[in-house]
Write a structure and sequence with these properties.
The protein is α+β, with helices and mostly antiparallel strands. Among the domains are: 3-124 and 233-269, de novo design (two linked rop proteins) (Up-down Bundle); 131-225, de novo design (two linked rop proteins); 443-599, Histidine kinase-like ATPase, C-terminal domain (Heat Shock Protein 90). The chain has 13 helices and 8 strands. It is rod-shaped and about 235 Å long. Residues 354-359 and 435-441 have low confidence and may be disordered.
Length: 601
């Protein structure tokens, strides 16, 4: 598989992951919204049931509720509306549907019991003037009036006791008071039956009172004198069943919502894991392919740059884009190798030509330098030979005179002196030329003070470095000792100082020469600075070549800096540079990394 195809597949997998996350988030949001809706409807259903239960509790507490069964129907209707709303959400879920149906059955049973209690209460009476309660109270009040009008103390006492037991029972709903009440009715009925004319009025009132009171008590017993009796007991059981069903439905609904949400989240996570795993596998594959090829390319290029070996090849396998880059780099390395071989051959030819040209320049310069003293020597020799022939002719002819001989001797002495000086100059020139090869002279290593050695060199130029024309400054530590070739250092400083004297001096201006040395990172740095004429830009790159000089017409040979360069680079294994200073003059900078030194206390 090529990288382009792999990247397209990787992008597609990434887009699929984004799509799954987006769709999953939408589905989870919808599921959470659905859960919230179901929870809200469940809360509303529970509120409607609570209103029905609260209404029943209020009725039990205060039975003077007006409206009768009509007060129940709106609450039952509100419950049915909420039940239908919730049913529309869960009718496709069997176990939730069953729970809701069971709850609905319990609610309707509770409502039916509540309706029966209200219907019975309608018979009893919703206030003191209606129903059975109102009738027996009216009868009781009539009995009290009749007893008072009869001026019968016994009857009045019986009626008052009867009313007291009536109120005790109605306040406490205790059967003991009811039995006492029944006993008093019998006793009152017996007493009334013994009366005369008042019997006809009191007896019907007493019968009416007893019938209505017994009916009232019977209805109360059906409703339930205590919370666990009669319809109140049934209502209590219906409430318990209803609350259990409501709690069970709420719990199952919450579990269902959590389960659906968790199932959806797990599916989204599973798809994400699958897509992420596929992406990781593909990324790992791409990483392996790309990393291995790039590492191979990097390793090969590192070896090429480090060893300058362009014969190395990457030899990548495959046909993808990275492999194509590797093949193209192999072709490039092969082209560079061919080009370098051609360049090396051309360079070798140029070096040989340069060597021949340099040798020609060196021989030409050396011949030019030898030409002047040797020409003078030959001329002196010719003049001396001519004078000697004249002397021989005068001597043979007998014309030799004393003053002629004296003049000849003087001219001969002058010619011999001139001949000797020029031959000596020629010999010195040949010696200087030989010193271009540093290793020709034997020199042993030894420890010496650099500052003392340079002072010794300056002593040799004491007659030339006369103040105020020359100012020499030494910036060299007194405790700097070197273990090296003292003769080489002697020649180096002799040539550099001589170069300053011959080339740097500006007429009418003192020449300041500064010789300094310091140690930086275990390297010896030597400086020879002056503020003289300086050097031209054209001549600066050539200053260390033999016979390069700007004072050829004034006796300069051009070998001093060449000898210095060979001594520094070959014998001392260092580096030498010449810099043209912006403020005027030049600076010769010598760096010696391999020279042993010691800073003595």
């Amino acid at each position: 598989m090529k990288l382009k195809q792999s990247l397209i597949f990787f992008k597609s997998a990434a887009l699929a992951g984004i799509l799954v996350i987006t769709v999953g988030c939408v589905l989870i949001y919808e599921q959470m919204a659905k859960n919230a809706t179901m929870t809200r409807k469940m809360d509303m259903l529970q509120n409607s049931i609570n209103q029905l239960v609260d209404q029943e509790a209020a009725f039990i507490t205060d039975r003077t509720l007006h409206g009768g069964v009509a007060e129940i129907k709106p609450l039952v209707g509100a419950y049915s509306l909420q039940q239908q709303s919730l049913l529309s959400e869960i009718e496709s879920i069997p176990y939730l549907f069953e729970r809701l149906q069971a709850l609905d059955k319990s609610v309707h049973e509770f409502a039916m019991v509540y309706e029966q209690m209200v219907s019975l209460q309608a018979l009893v009476g919703f206030d003191q003037q209606s129903g059975r309660y109102g009738r027996f109270r009216d009868a009781a009040h009539a009995l009290q009036r009749e007893s008072e009008n009869s001026n019968d103390l016994r009857l009045t006492t019986l009626i008052l006791e009867l009313r007291r037991r009536e109120k005790d029972f109605l306040l406490r709903f205790d059967s003991v008071y009811l039995q006492m009440h029944e006993k008093l009715i019998e006793e009152t009925s017996t007493y009334v039956s013994k009366l005369g004319q008042s019997k006809e009025t009191l007896q019907p009132l007493l019968v009416t009172y007893k019938q209505n009171f017994d009916t009232y008590v019977d209805i109360l017993q059906k409703q339930g004198l205590t919370p666990n009796q009669g319809l109140r007991g049934e209502s209590k059981l219906a409430q318990q069943a209803m609350r259990l069903q409501l709690s069970a439905l709420s719990e199952v609904l919450i579990q269902h919502s959590q389960l659906e949400t968790e199932r959806l989240i797990w599916w989204v996570l599973l798809l994400m894991v699958v897509i992420t795993t596929a992406n990781y596998a593909l990324l790992n594959y791409l990483n392996g392919r790309i990393s291995n090829d790039i590492l191979a390319i990097n390793k090969t290029l590192f070896k090429v740059t480090k060893n300058e070996d362009f014969s190395l090849r990457i030899d990548s396998k495959g046909n993808d884009e990275i492999a194509q880059i590797s093949h193209q780099l192999d072709e490039l390395l092969e082209f560079i190798e061919t080009l370098l071989s051609r360049l090396s051959a051309a360079q070798q030819r140029l070096i040989e030509e340069a060597k021949m040209a340099g040798l020609g320049n060196m021989v030409s310069g050396f011949a030019h330098e030898l030409n002047t003293p040797l020409g003078i020597a030959i001329t002196s020799h010719s003049h001396l030979k001519s004078k000697m022939e004249t002397l021989r002719e005068d001597f043979d002819s007998g014309k030799l005179k004393k003053h002629t001989l004296s003049e000849l001797i003087s001219e001969a002495e002058a010619a011999m002196t001139l001949l000797e000086n020029n031959l000596m100059k020629t010999a010195n020139l040949i010696d200087d030329f030989k010193e271009v090869a540093v290793h020709q002279r034997q020199d042993c290593k030894s420890e010496f003070s650099l500052k003392s050695l340079i002072k010794g060199v300056l002593d040799c130029y004491e007659s030339e470095l006369v103040e105020p024309e020359y100012v020499v400054t030494l910036e060299i530590p007194d405790n700097l000792y070197l273990f090296s070739y003292p003769s080489a250092f002697n020649q180096i400083f002799r040539y550099t100082i001589n170069n300053c004297i011959k080339h740097a001096k500006i007429e009418g201006k003192p020449l300041v020469i500064t010789l300094s040395a310091k140690v930086v990172n275990d390297y010896i740095h030597l400086y020879c600075k002056d503020d003289g004429h300086g050097i031209s830009k054209d001549l600066l790159p050539l200053v260390f070549e033999p016979f390069v000089t700007s004072k050829r017409n004034q006796g300069g040979t051009g070998l001093g800096l060449s000898v210095t360069y060979n001594l520094v680079t070959q014998k001392l294994e260092g580096e030498i540079k010449m810099q043209s200073l912006p403020q005027g003059g030049v600076c010769i900078h010598i760096i010696l990394p391999n020279t042993t030194f010691n800073l003595k206390d």
